[in-house]
Amino acid sequence: MGFLAERAATRMEARQRYRTASRMQRRRSSMESKLGMRQDFERKEEEPAEVAGPTSTSAAPEPEYMAELERLAQLRDQEIISKEEFEAKKKQILGI
Q: CA within 20 to 30 Å of 8's CA: 14, 25, 62, 64, which one?
């Protein structure tokens, strides 16, 4: 009986560790998605001046994530970030 009780306790302990690790990963993912790109790629102060051009009132404003993806594509094209990093950030931004 001692062996079975020990085995059951070991299984319960392993399940609890898995649940805790899983919960911590969900929290980490949630916080990363809330922080978004700010953490990895800070915006430069010059960018708003470049973006502030003539806009027509009839055109719909571009979603914020589009500008972020364009900036990431530029970093990828300049080989500042790798293709894999670009794909990972793109999936994070789009919520895929």
A: 25
Hey, CA dihedral for 55, 60, 64, 66, is it positive or negative? negative
What residue spans of the chain are helical by DSSP H?
A: 2-35, 47-51, 64-77, 83-94
d(CA 64, CA 69) in angstroms, rounded, equals 9
Least confident window among 3-17, 27-41, 73-87: 27-41
Contact yes or no for 32/92 (Cβ under 8 A): yes
Please report, as a single letter, which amino acid is at residue 21: A
Q: What is the pLDDT of residue 81?
A: 86
Chain segment 33-60, per-residue pLDDT in tens: 776 655 555 555 555 545 545 554 455 5
Amino acid at residue number 89: K
Q: What angle do CA 55, 45, 81 make, to 5 degrees?
A: 100
